[in-house]
Structure formats: C-alpha cells, structure tokens
C-alpha cells in the first residue's frame, strides 16, 4: 500500500493552526509558569494568539480554495467572515474571562472540601480556562469550513468537549455549575449520537462522506430518498442541538444559568456563529437541491423555536435564564435565514450572527458586574432600580436589550429587517409572520427589564455594581459602539459581507 | 461636479453644538466665543465656495458631495448627499452671515443669562440644521434638516421654559409645525411611490413621466409643509407666540431664515409646481391671503415683537405669492427673501435693543421719545423701516416692487386681483410700520418709572449697523443688471416673455402712492394725537378682531382643538378597553402559556433527553408523512 502525503495549504489553514499552537503553549504555561505570573502570561498568550489568527484571517480574506486540506476544508468568503466573527467575539469574551473572580480556584477539587479551601487561601488559582477557550475556538473555526462529514464531526467534538468542561468552572454555586456541565455533556453526547447516525445514513445514501459527493447524489436524485431524508434529519438534530432550537433546546437554560457568566456569554455568541455557519454551508450547498423536503420541517422548527423562546422568556425571573430563552428565540430568527436559501439570506445571516454575538457578549459582561457579597445577582427582582444606582451600566444594558428586541437604530433592527426581508423574498411568509409576531412578544420582556431597572424603586439589599475592570470595560464599550454603529450606519459592513459572502462548491 | 468640502459648512456649527452641550458648565466661559467663531468660519467657507462658483461657467456651478450610503438592504437604498447650487449658496450666505451677526449680538444680549452657553449651543445647532435643509440633495435629506430646525426652534422658543406661558408657546409652535411636517412626509411618500426616487435631480427628471394628479398631490403636500414652517395661512398661528423666545432668536429663526424655508421648498420644487398648475394656484392664494392676514394683525398689535412677527408673516406671504407666480416669480421671491433677511433681522435686533434699554418692556404704548436716548438703534431701525416700506433706493423698493409688478403682469383677472392685493398690503404695511416707529421713537415718553433707556453696547449695535447697511444696499446690488435673476436663471425653466399689463414705472408710482397714503394715515392717527399708554377699550369690532389675531386661535380651538380633544378622549377610551384590553389579554395569555411551558424545564436530564428523542421521532414521522 502506497501512502500519499496529503497536500496542505498552510497559509489558508494558519488561523486554526495558530490557535492550536497557542492552546498548546497555554497548556505548557499552566504546567511550568509560577503562580504569580501564570494568569497574566495566559492572558497575553491567548490574546496574542487570537489577534495573530485574526490578522491571518484578514490576509486570506479574498482567497478561495477547495483543496486547502486535501478536500476536507473549504476556504471562501463566508468561511472568512464567520471565522473573523468568531475571533472578534472570542477576543472580547476573553477580556471578560480575564476577571478570574468568576472561576474556581481548583476545578478538580470537590466543592466544599479542604482541598478547595486550601486552593482559595493560597491564591493558587488555576487558569486552564484559557487553553480550553483556545481549543474550543479552534473547533469553532473548523466547524463552518469543514467540507466532509468526518471533519465536521471532529470539529463538533473539538468545540464541544472544552465547552463541557468550561461550563463547570464556576467559583460560586459550584454544584450547580458542575450539574450544568454534566447535563451539557450527557445531552451533547446524545445529540452527537444522532449526528453520527445521520452521517451513516448519508453515507448509505451517497456512498460518500464529502459534501461534494453527497451533493452529487442529491442533484442526480439516484439514491434512496428515505436514507437521504433520515440522514438529513439526524444530522440536523446534531446541529439544531448546538444552536438551541426547540425541541433540542432543553439544555441551554440550565447550562446558561450554571456556567460562569463570562463563559455563558462566549458560548452563546461564538457557538451560535460556528453552528449556524456550518448549517448555512450544509443547507446552502449540500442539501440545496432537496429543498422541497427540508424547508417545511425547518420552517416548523423555526416557528416553534421563535414562539417558544419568546413566550417562555416572559416567565423567567432570572436574568441569565431570560437571556437563554432570548437566545433560543434568536436561533429561531436565524433559522429564517437558513430557510431563505438565497444570497440575501446568507448575507443577512452573517450580519445577524456578528451583531447578535457582539451584543450578547456585552450583555453578559454587564451581568457579571451586578453582584452582592455572595457573587453575581441574577435574580431580576434585585435588578430593580439599577438605573438609579448605576445609570451608565443600566443604560448600556438597556441598549443591548433594545438591540435584542430589534428596535431601530440598533444592530438588531438591521439584522432582523434584512433576515426577514430575505425570508419573505424567498416565499417563507409563515416564518416571517411568526418572526414578527414573536419579536413583538419578545419586546415585552426586554422592555419589562428596562422598566424594572429605570421605573421601579430599588430595594436596599446590598446588591451593588462592581466597577468594571479595564478589560471588561473595553468589552462593554466595544459592544455598545458596534451595536449602535451597525444600527445607525450598517452600509459598510453590509456591503463588505455582500461582496465576500458566496459559497464555493 | 463633485466636491468633498461641502460637509464642513454643516460640520463646523454642528461640532460647536456638540462641544457646548457635551462639555456642559465647563465651557461656560468660552462657549459663546467658540460658537460665534464656528458660525463665522462656516460663513467664510460659504464665501470661499461662492468665489469658486463664480469662477465656473453656468453649467458647472452646481456641485454635489455624496456623504455616505446610509442603508442598503436589497432594493431599498438611501444615500446621504449634499448639493450646492446657485440657489442654495444664497441661503448659505444668508444663514451663516446673518447668523454670525446674531451670534455676536447675543454675546452681549444674553450676557446676564446663566444659560448663555446652552443658548449658543442651540443657535449653532440651528445653523447646522438649517444648512442641512438647504444643502440636502434630496427631499429626504432636506427633511432631516427640516426637522432639525423645528427642534432648534422649539428649544429656543422655550429657552426660558421656567415661564409656563413660554413653554406652552414652544409646544404650540412645535405641534403646528408637525402638521406641516406631515405634509412634507406625505409629499416624499407620494414621490417615492410614483417616481421611485426622492432626490431633486431624480424627481426633476421623472416629472414628465408622472401623472398630473400625482404632481398636484405632491405640490399640495409641499405647500402644506411650507405653510407650517413659514407660518402661512392656515398654519400661521404659532408665529406670534414664538416671540416668547429671546429676541435674537426671533431675528434669526423667526424672521430671517427658518420661516423662509417654505419659500425655499417651493422654489426648489419649481419643476413640480410648474407641472401642476392647480397646486401653483393654491400657492398664490395662500400667499395673497397670508400677506393681508399678517398686515391686518400688524395694525392692532401693541407688542413690538408681535407687530414685527405679523409683518414677517405678511412679507413671507409676498414671497410665497411670488414663488407661486411661476418661473418669472421665483427669482423675485428669493430676492425679497434676501432683502427681507437683512431689514427684518435688523429691525428685530433693534427691537431687542429697545427692550434691552427699557427693562424688557415690549408694549409700545410704554415707549415713546426713544429717538434721543437710542440714536443708533433709531437710525438702524429707521433704515430697516424705509426698506420694508419700499422707499427708493432702499432694499425693499427693488424686491417688493418686482413682486407687485409680476403679480399685475400674471395675466387676466387673476393679475389684477393679485396686483391689487399686493398694493393694498404695501399700504397697510406702511401704516403699521409707521405706527411702530411713531409709538417707539417719537412723541412724548410714556415709560414706566423704573425705565432708564440707554443705548446698547457696541457688540449689539455693530450687527444692527451692518444689517442696516444691507437693508440700504442689498436691493440695488441684487437687482443691478438683473444680477440675481441671471444668477438663478439656469435653475428655472423659462417660458419666454410675459405680457406686460403695467410698466415698471407705473407700478412703482402706484406702490409709492399707496405707501404714502398708509404713512399719512398713521401720522394723522398717532402723531397728532396723544397716544394713551393703555390700549383704548372703546374700539371698533375690526380692531378688536385684529387684536385677537383675526380670531385665529379661536378658530383653531373650535375647529381643531375641541373636536380633537373629544376624538382623543374617545380614542383613549377605545384604546384602553379595546386595544389595551387585547394587549393585556395577549400578555396574560403569553405569561400563562409561558408559565405552563416552563413546566417542561424540569431540570432532569432524563426528561431533556426524552424531549430530544420525541423531537427526533416527530421529525422522522413528519418526513414519513411528507414522502407518502
């Protein structure tokens, strides 16, 4: 047997390779650098890696290649845009993650044990969250550019496994955090099983695991349609689980609430970009010709997801859970972009993902600031009167909520407007109607929080707002500026996306 | 031609407003100086642009600048762009020139006001918005400026909003302007719906393919907009109350610039009105009615600022009438607008100077004999007075006579009616302006005991003097060799020569005679008799009606306000029971369903997994159904 070495285009793969290298350095730092210098070293390595990777992505922005890694990945406009979005979101998330107060001193210790107490008292804070973040990001970067099912699955696990661990790193309420991590892991494994099962069906249908091969069979229409449909359904379940679409969403409120808040923000924003990126590629290129069979199903899921997310969010009393349901509703809105299946839908989805991701990281960054003696305060009743105590923080948070609600002059409005108009053009009227309806419902609970913050008298219960660290401040300011800048003057980004975003096959 | 420096015209004063408002009290010491400097720099940019424009041939003169593509989703595109042509440069120089003089005046006038910085911030904001209004290259960009000046006007009328009456006045101005603004937005919508564009060049090109009905609709809606902003009949009632603002504001916004925006709008839209004769006729009617309306109100006002406001209304009536006379009238309307900008701003500043010396007294019956105490104010005000009367060779003589002449020569019975109205208006103008002069400056003093009249400091009289020079010379300069008419002519379609009913000499003779009659009556009535320092009660019904602004407020109250209030009450009740009821029901239903759906979230991972399984099974089942 002759072994042919695969030809790798290192330039095009460099963004991911840099991240993996940085992550490995992070592991070494964790092992060898003294505890005093560890945190700052890790932070520098992580940020440096991310920025280097972003620079590399910018350099290859006009490249197109189907053969960068022996046909396993594809580099094109959408790939570059999604990777850049993930990296920007990752950078501002790392600024928030850098506040070590959110993370357990020693994740391996039992909650409440002597070991844990010792770790806290000695100040021997472990910082494995940084390399884990980098590993997760490299998986996210690989996910939307995979062009065969095996690579797609590897990328899925690469991004998921670190996230399972990161969800369990909370310093306070560690049991809840660990419970969240375990739930996420079990359900994630369950959905991965569906995904693998679906891969097997698709292989059975087309005798190929590459996107190109499966598409050929779909276009030719020669195979057994039942195999195709079941395969499609099961692969979709794996993806829909990641984006948190109903009925595969159940993990998200519990995990969002249990995970350390900086991780929640990162997860909510970056995972969505990666998972929707992969989904857009699969539906727009591989399954595009089988549109008749999946559009109705996906539309039904989109409608249920929007309505369910918006309705249940109303009943929430916890800000993190509310944002979790809001993120479920947003997953529904984004599905409208997948269903649109036209160029406008692709452009709008990418814009929406970036705008939503940035606003989400900003919103969760603010959640990390509202604390009392025992840590973060996420009970909405205790956010009453925040606008009087900390007008700037409350105003900024209100800005993000308005963006989530899609009020004009915020990025959320432009995102919703463009995604719904794309879906409308493609004839998915029922999805648009449900989308507008649930946007109206959603506005109800976003604005309720604003009313709570500004027009309700505060209770004196020791809830205070931490003065944001310089890094967290950067994140909040950046997110705010982007959210409003994209709302007031979106044209440059929109046209940049329009010019670049074309899938190659 | 493309330029990239137009934006500085707007950016300079806008930056001033932003700095003064954001820096807050820290800029109290130097804010007014910065604002004045920025307004002046904008004026110099305007002069520079004029010099460039003079160096180009007629076709090359208009220049434009695309600022940015504001939004572009699918086929829905909005660009922001500026355009400077022969018409807008006139406005740019008027706005920044008179504006800067009024900035200078205000430094002294407002020097005792603790909020002087805020005042200057609003003045700069106004200048920026007004420049955007005249520089926008589409109706939509104009609309942004249009709303901007409305906002600045609202803020400045209510500048002393600690007095409830002033706050109410600003609200009244704002609400009445909104009615007009609705007209503008309707005009934009119709234009967009029928022509698919809202840029001036686009609309102009599309006019010939558009139905007359649509053009008439657009024209009427533009006229509604103009009546709101320019205080024309039937939306004129706010202007008198707007005098609640500080006097420099009255001079700048409510005499020289903002209230002339309606004239600009109609002149700018000449291609629409030329193609929609019905709308054009309505313009003329509105102008004629308003010029009489304002003049009549002016005869009965004892408040010097309100008398001047009535006169503004009447003079803008002349301009609107001129603009409604079609291609021959546009240039004369603009000429009268420019000369009026000088003499009316000058007179308002004079009124401010009088108030400054008289303890903020505005009642002319408490003035008298001020000539000796305020010689400079008397001289500058007097020159403005001669200008508005149309005495040769002062500015108004050239501009007003042109409009009267054009009105007479507009043909047929229409020409005779319009000509007579404008002549009569000139006579009444002469009457009430003479009355203002006599009551204020001559006769015996009727002051309150606390009044110690004195001349204003040089910072105040210098702008007045410069404006007075303008009121003397601008008419001659603009009409010498048909300067302004030729300058503007490339913008308007010329329909050849018009028939001549009366020659210019005859018109001038008639006008001067009418003016002399008006002046004579005023002299007989006010100079010979002792003027009482309280308004006499036993006056004719006409005087009483004129004192009440020809019942305009009562009309508005009974026709619009009361029915409006009843309608609002009904709507509120409907809203409360039907709409809010529905919303509340939906809200309750949503919360209820949210709460019950929440039950699914049990926290048990096994039930979550089961949910996923159920979802998967449902998907497969659905596929099975679809494929069967």
From TrEMBL, chain A:
Cellular component GO terms, alphabetical: membrane
GO terms under biological process: ATP synthesis coupled electron transport
Chain segments annotated as transmembrane: 12-33, 39-58, 79-98, 149-169, 181-206, 226-251, 263-284, 296-315, 322-344, 350-370, 391-411, 431-455, 476-497
Keywords: Membrane, Transmembrane, Transmembrane helix
GO molecular function: NADH dehydrogenase (ubiquinone) activity
Main location per the UniProt record: membrane
Compartment annotation: Membrane
Pfam (any one): Proton_antipo_M
Membrane topology, record value: Multi-pass membrane protein
Matches recorded under InterPro entries: NADH-Q_OxRdtase_suN/2, ND/Mrp_TM
Domain NADH:quinone oxidoreductase/Mrp antiporter transmembrane: 146-441
Keyword Glycosyltransferase: no
Protein name stated in the entry: Unannotated protein
From TrEMBL, chain B:
GO MF, one example: NADH dehydrogenase activity
The keyword Transmembrane belongs to this UniProt entry's keyword annotation: yes
Domain named NADH-Ubiquinone oxidoreductase (complex I) chain 5 N-terminal: residues: 70-120
UniProt entry keywords in alphabetical sequence: Membrane, Transmembrane, Transmembrane helix
GO terms of biological process kind: ATP synthesis coupled electron transport; electron transport coupled proton transport
Transmembrane segments: 6-23, 30-50, 86-107, 119-136, 142-161, 182-203, 209-228, 249-267, 279-300, 331-352, 373-395, 415-438, 458-481, 501-524, 608-627
Membrane topology reported for the UniProt record: Multi-pass membrane protein
InterPro entries assigned: NADHpl_OxRdtase_5_subgr, ND/Mrp_TM, NU5C-like, Proton_antipo_N
Residue stretches making up the NADH:quinone oxidoreductase/Mrp antiporter transmembrane domain: 138-422
NCBIfam families per the UniProt record, alphabetical: NDH_I_L, PRK06590.1
Entry protein name: Unannotated protein
Native source organism of the sequence: freshwater metagenome
């Amino acid at each position: 047997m002759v072994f042919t070495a695969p030809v790798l285009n290192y330039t095009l793969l460099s963004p991911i390779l840099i991240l993996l290298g940085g992550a490995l350095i992070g592991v070494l730092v964790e092992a060898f650098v003294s505890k005093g210098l560890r945190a700052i070293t890790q932070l520098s390595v992580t940020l440096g890696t991310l920025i280097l990777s972003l620079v590399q992505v910018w350099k290859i922005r006009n490249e197109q290649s189907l053969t960068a890694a022996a046909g396993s990945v594809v580099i094109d406009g959408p790939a570059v845009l999604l990777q850049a979005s993930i990296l920007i979101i990752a950078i501002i998330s790392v600024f928030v993650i850098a506040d070590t107060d959110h993370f357990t001193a020693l994740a391996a210790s039992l909650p409440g044990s002597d070991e844990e107490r010792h770790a806290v008292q000695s100040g021997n804070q472990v910082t494995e969250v940084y390399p884990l973040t980098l590993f997760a990001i490299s998986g996210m970067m690989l996910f939307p550019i995979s062009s065969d099912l095996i690579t797609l699955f590897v990328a899925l696990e690469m991004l998921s496994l670190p996230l399972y661990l990161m969800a369990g790193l909370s310093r306070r309420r560690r049991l809840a955090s660990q419970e969240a991590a375990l739930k996420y892991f079990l359900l994630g494994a369950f959905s991965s099983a569906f995904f693998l099962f679906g891969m097997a069906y698709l292989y059975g249908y087309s005798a190929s695991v590459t996107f190109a091969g499966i598409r050929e069979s779909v276009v030719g229409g020669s195979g057994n349609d039942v195999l195709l449909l079941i395969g499609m359904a099961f692969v979709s379940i794996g993806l829909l689980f990641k984006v948190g679409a109903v009925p595969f969403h159940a993990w998200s409120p519990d995990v969002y609430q249990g995970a350390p808040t900086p991780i929640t923000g990162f997860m909510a924003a970056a995972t969505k970009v990666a998972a929707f990126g992969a989904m857009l590629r699969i539906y727009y290129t591989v399954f595009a010709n089988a549109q008749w069979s999946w559009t109705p199903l996906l539309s039904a899921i989109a409608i249920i997801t929007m309505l369910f997310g918006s309705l249940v969010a109303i009943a929430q009393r916890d800000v993190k859970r509310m944002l979790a349901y809001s993120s479920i509703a947003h997953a529904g809105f984004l599905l409208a972009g997948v269903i649109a299946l036209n160029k406008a839908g692709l452009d709008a989805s990418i814009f929406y993902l970036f705008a939503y991701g940035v606003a989400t990281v900003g919103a969760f960054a603010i959640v990390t600031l509202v604390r009392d003696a025992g840590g973060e305060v996420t009970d909405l009743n205790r956010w009453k009167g925040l606008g009087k105590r900390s007008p700037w923080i409350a105003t900024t948070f209100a800005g993000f909520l308005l963006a989530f609600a899609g009020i004009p002059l915020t990025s959320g409005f432009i995102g919703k407007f463009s995604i719904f108009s794309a879906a409308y053009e493609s004839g998915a009227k029922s999805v648009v109607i449900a989308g507008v309806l649930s946007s109206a419902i959603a506005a109800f609970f976003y604005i309720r929080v604003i009313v709570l913050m500004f027009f309700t008298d505060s209770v004196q219960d020791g809830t205070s707002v931490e003065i944001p660290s310089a890094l967290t401040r950067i994140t909040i300011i950046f997110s705010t500026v982007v959210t409003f800048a994209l709302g007031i003057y979106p044209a440059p980004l929109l046209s940049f996306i329009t010019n670049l975003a074309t899938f190659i096959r | 031609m493309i330029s990239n420096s137009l934006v500085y015209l707007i950016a300079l004063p806008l930056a001033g407003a932003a700095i003064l408002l954001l820096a807050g009290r820290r800029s109290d010491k130097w804010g007014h100086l910065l604002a004045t400097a920025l307004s002046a720099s904008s004026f110099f940019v305007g002069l520079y642009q004029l010099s460039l424009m003079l160096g180009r041939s007629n076709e090359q003169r208009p220049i434009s600048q695309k600022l940015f593509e504001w939004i572009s989703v699918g086929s829905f595109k909005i660009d922001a762009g500026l355009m400077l042509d022969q018409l807008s440069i006139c406005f740019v120089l008027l706005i920044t020139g008179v504006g800067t003089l009024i900035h200078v005046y205000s430094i002294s006038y407002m020097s005792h006001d603790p909020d002087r910085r805020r005042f200057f911030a609003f003045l700069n904001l106004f200048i920026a918005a007004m420049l955007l209004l005249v520089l926008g290259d589409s109706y939509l960009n104009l609309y942004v400026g249009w709303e901007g000046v409305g906002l600045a006007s609202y803020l400045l009328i209510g500048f002393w909003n600690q007095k409830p009456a002033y706050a109410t006045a600003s609200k009244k101005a704002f609400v009445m302007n909104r009615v007009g603004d609705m007209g503008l937005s309707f005009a934009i919508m119709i234009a967009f719906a029928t022509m698919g564009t809202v840029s001036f060049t686009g609309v102009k090109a599309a006019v010939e393919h558009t139905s007359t009905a649509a053009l008439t609709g657009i024209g009427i809606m533009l006229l509604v907009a103009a009546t709101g902003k320019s205080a024309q009949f039937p939306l004129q009632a706010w202007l008198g109350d707007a005098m609640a603002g500080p006097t420099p504001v009255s001079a700048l916004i409510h005499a020289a610039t903002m209230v002339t925006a309606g004239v600009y709008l109609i002149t700018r839209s000449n291609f629409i009105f030329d193609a929609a004769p019905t709308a054009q006729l309505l313009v003329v009617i509105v102008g004629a009615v308003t010029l009489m309306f304002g003049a009549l109100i002016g005869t009965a006002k004892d408040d010097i600022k309100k008398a001047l406001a009535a006169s503004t209304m009447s003079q803008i009536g002349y301009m609107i009438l001129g603009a409604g006379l079609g291609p021959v009238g546009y240039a004369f309307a603009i000429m009268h607008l420019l000369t009026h900008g000088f003499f009316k701003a000058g007179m308002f500043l004079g009124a401010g100077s009088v108030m400054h010396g008289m303890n903020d007294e505005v009642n002319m019956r408490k003035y008298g004999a001020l000539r000796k105490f305020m010689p400079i104010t008397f001289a500058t005000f007097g020159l403005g007075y001669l200008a508005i009367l149309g005495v040769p060779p002062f500015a108004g003589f050239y501009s007003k006579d042109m409009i009267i002449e054009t009105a007479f020569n507009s043909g047929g019975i229409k020409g005779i009616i319009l000509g007579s109205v404008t002549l009569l208006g000139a006579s009444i103008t002469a009457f009430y302006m003479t009355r203002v002069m006599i009551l204020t400056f001559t006769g015996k003093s009727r002051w309150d005991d606390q009044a110690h009249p004195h001349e204003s400091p040089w910072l105040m009289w210098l702008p007045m003097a410069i404006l007075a020079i303008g009121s003397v010379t601008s008419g001659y300069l603009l009409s010498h060799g048909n300067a302004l008419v030729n300058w503007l002519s490339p913008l308007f379609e010329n329909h050849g020569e018009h028939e001549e009913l009366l020659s210019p000499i005859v018109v001038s003779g008639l006008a001067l005679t009418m003016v002399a009659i008006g002046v004579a009556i005023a002299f007989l009535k006010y100079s010979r008799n002792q003027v009482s320092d309280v308004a006499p009660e036993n006056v004719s019904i006409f005087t009483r009606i004129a004192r009440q602004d020809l019942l305009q407020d009562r009309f508005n109250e009974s026709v619009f306000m009361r029915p409006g209030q009843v309608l609002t009450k009904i709507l509120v009740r409907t809203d409360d029971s039907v709409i809010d009821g529905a919303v509340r029901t939906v809200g309750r239903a949503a919360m209820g369903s949210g709460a019950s759906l929440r039950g699914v979230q049990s926290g048990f991972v096994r039930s979550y997994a089961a949910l996923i399984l159920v979802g998967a099974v449902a998907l497969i089942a659905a596929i099975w159904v679809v494929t069967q």
